[in-house]
Each structure stands twice: as C-alpha cells, then as structure tokens.
Amino acid sequence: MPDLTKTPATDEAHAVAIADADAKAVDTVEAAGKPRSLWGDAWRDLRRRPLFIVSALLIFVVLLVAAFPGMFTSADPRSGDLTNHFLQKPNFGHVFQPDWFGYDRQGRSIYARVVYGARNSIVVGFGVTILVTVFGGLVGMLAGYFGGFIDSLLSRLTDVFFGIPFLLGAMVVLNAFTERNVWVITGALAFLGWTQIARVMRGAVITTRHADYVMAAKALGAGTKRILFRHILPNAIAPVIVIATIALGTYIVAESTLSFLGLGFGGDALSWGGDISDALADIRNNPHTLFFPAGMLSITVLAFIMMGDAVREALDPKLR
C-alpha cells in the first residue's frame, strides 16, 4: 500500500537530499582521487608534526619581539642606574618588567637588552639566508644545468670559497671596515656562506635536468630561461629550502660570535653576542647576566634547527 503520510513536497525534499548527498560523495571521491603536489603533501604532513608546530610558535614569538620590541618592554636598554641597579638579581615575580631578568654591571635592564637585541640578530640571519639562497642557488642551477666548461668553472669557484674558513674569513673581511652595521655584517657573511647552497642546488639540478617533463619542454621549443625557472627550479629547490632553514640559525650564531669577539656591531648597537661578551666578567658571581642572552640565542637557533628538521622529513618521502 502507498504511504499516505508522504506528500509531493516530502518526496521532492527527499529527492533533493539524496541528490545533495550524491554530489557531496562525488566531490569527496574526486578530491580524494586528485593527486596532491609535493608541496601539498609536505604542508599536510607538517601540520601534523608537533616539532613543526612548536618551532613555528617559537619563531613567531621571536619575530614578533624583533619587529615590535616596544610591545614587550617600555624600558630603555641603553639606560643604566649604577646607584640602584648595579648587578641586581632577577625578580621572577615581575614578569615582563625591567627587573625580570635582573640588571648588568652598568645598571641596565637585561630583559630590555634581550628584547631589543633580537632585531639585529634576526635581520642579519634572514638577510644572509636570502642572499646566499639566491646567489648560491643561481650558481648551482647554472652549473648543474649546462655542465661542461660552465660547470667546471663554477664548481672550481665554489671550491675556492668553500676552502676559506667561514668565521675566520668573515673576521678578515670585517676588519677592513671601520664601521660595521647590519648591512656590512650581512654582506660579509653572505660573501662566504653561499657555497653549501650552490653545491646542494647543483646536485638537485643534475638529477632533475634529465626528467621526462624537462625533455618534453625542450621538445616543445621552450627556452632555457623557461625551462630553468618553470620546470627545474620548482622541482629542485626542496633540499635548498631545508638547508637554508637550518643555516639561518647558523648565521645568527655567526653574527653573535663576531659580536662576542668584538668584530660585530660597533658602538652602542644591541646584540646578544655583545651582551654575552660583557657578561663574562661576572659569570661566577652573577651568572644571570650571561644566562638570559645566551638562553635567548640558544632557543632561537634551536627553533630554526627544529623547523629545518621538520621540513626535511616532510619533503623527503623516505622519512615519512
């Protein structure tokens, strides 16, 4: 017997619901069957990794501190009060206050100096990373793609710079400048730091240049520039990104080391390395003067290393 409780409106609504459900099912199947790119798979994998989430949060906080130090403290990092604040111990009950990390032997707030010192270190780290990635990546890409004489010439040039000790070479270069600011230090480190990126890019391009899609692009008459930047670069840059992410922390350490040795920022410029150097005189009786700038430096470098490891595991299918 027909169901007398149903009406034409009910049947129509039921049919519409079934059609919507079928459409959603088709969309789901299509979405599931659609192949994702390497970057899509990597991003999907990264979002599930606690290591990436923790490192990304740490890096975000450090970048926020470097960009807007006034949001975190109103104290003047260069102003000292020897009468009241000489080597005063930390007051952990006053969070985000000038006396939170204590004071140094000049009566200056260590917390304020740690906050304001982040900017120079971060700017140098990112500046060097961008320069070495662009220049080293270009050198490696040209050497790997053209081969022959060009490869030999660029590879020998890379070997010459690779043979120069990084920090020692940077010290020699910086000694030639009477005024050492952010741009001078960034240029000196980038001048010697591009070799590893070049080697990694060269190897990746050599592996990629014989791929089917590159041969097809050549057969269709694509120019060298289009092949390099539209077909080879997107598929060869993954290992370079991993190396650059980890190296960024290394460049921050290099800047702090140079400042520690007195070859970094001059004058009254703020730097974690300079504060670590100043704290050596009080390390035994007042270790807090060393602990906080060194701790901030270590946390920042560790965050970038963790980020690099997470990106490496996400981009390498063998490590998933």
Automatic annotation (TrEMBL):
GO cellular component terms listed in the entry, alphabetical order: plasma membrane
Keyword Cell membrane on entry: yes
Gene3D superfamilies, sorted: MetI-like
ABC transmembrane type-1 domain residues: 118-308
Residue ranges crossing the lipid bilayer per the database entry: 51-72, 122-145, 157-177, 183-201, 232-254, 290-311
Keywords assigned by UniProt, alphabetized: Cell membrane, Membrane, Transmembrane, Transmembrane helix, Transport
CDD domains listed in its UniProt record: TM_PBP2
Superkingdom as given in the UniProt entry: Bacteria
GO-annotated biological processes: transmembrane transport
Pfam families: BPD_transp_1, OppC_N
Membrane topology listed for this record: Multi-pass membrane protein
Family under the similarity heading: Belongs to the binding-protein-dependent transport system permease family.
UniProt name for this protein: ABC transporter permease
Organism of origin: Streptomyces alfalfae
